[in-house]
C-alpha cells in the first residue's frame, strides 16, 4: 500500500467491488462508503492532503464544492457514470481537477432500455403480465385486456442527440418510427429534422424520449406546457435524469389523463418514487437501471481503472469530461 496513489471511493460499491481486486496492487482505495463515519470523520483517519483521486458514481455522493474542499491535493475525479450532474464541474475546473466519465460505454444498454420502456408501455407488456397472473389460468377472458398502441409509424422526438440519443434513434428507426430531435445545437451530421423548441417538438410528436444531460438549462425541460402539447395519447420515456421532468406535473397530468403514459428509469428525488405512479397501469418503472448490464459493468471497471492508470502515468485520460468555462 505504501507509496501507492490514494483513491477515495465515494458512493455505493456497484462495480467498485469488481474493480478494486483488479487494481489494488496499483492504487490504495479508501472505501468511505463501507464506513459508518461521516465523510469528514472518515477523512480525518486518512490524511486528506495525501489523497489525489476520487472514484465515484452517479447514485452515491454528490461531489460538491464542499466535498472537494476537504481534499486539498485532489487532481483527478473518475465517475463511473455518463451523467455528471452529481459533480461540481465548475469547481473542478477552477481547481484544475481533471474529470473522467463513462464516455459512450453505456449508450447501447441505455438506448435498449429506452426502447424497452417504450415498447412495454405502448404494448402494455408489464401490465399484461400483471393482469394475466391475477386471472384464472384456464379461463382468463383474454379479450377483455385493453388494446395497446402500435409503435411503427409513430413520430418520436428525441431530446438530446448525443451518443445515447443516436442509439435510440437508430433503434426506433428500424421499428418504423419517424425521428426528430431537440438538442443544444442543430447537428450537421444527421438528417433528422431539428426542432429548437421542446413545446413545438411535443406538438408534432407522439413520443418524447429524454436523453439529454441534466443542467441548469435542462432542469424541468418537460413541464406542464410540454406535456399538454404532447397530448392525451402521448408517451414520455426518461432514461436521462429525473430532474429533466417536473415530476409533480407529470404525476398530475397522468392522473388527469392529459398524457397517455410514461416509461421512467429515473426520478426527481431518487431513490424516492412518487407513490401515485405505483397505482398506474400506463406507467412502466425501472430503478435507475438502464446502464446496468453485466457486460457494461465489466467494461466500465476496465475504463475506470484505465483512466486512473492513464492519469498516474501522465498520459491523457481515455474518456475526459469537458469542463465548463
Ligand atoms: O445514470 C447513469 C449514468 O449516468 O451513467
UniProtKB/TrEMBL annotation:
This is glyoxylate reductase (NADP(+)). Its EC number is 1.1.1.79. Residues 116-290 form the D-isomer specific 2-hydroxyacid dehydrogenase NAD-binding domain. Residues 62-321 form the D-isomer specific 2-hydroxyacid dehydrogenase catalytic domain. GO terms for cellular component: cytosol. It comes from the Eukaryota. Keywords: NAD, NADP, Oxidoreductase. Pfam families: 2-Hacid_dh (PF00389), 2-Hacid_dh_C (PF02826). GO terms for biological process: photorespiration. InterPro entries: D-isomer_2-hydroxyacid_DH, D-isomer_2_OHA_DH_cat_dom, D-isomer_DH_NAD-bd, NAD(P)-bd_dom_sf. One of its GO terms (molecular function) is hydroxypyruvate reductase [NAD(P)H] activity. Belongs to the D-isomer specific 2-hydroxyacid dehydrogenase family.
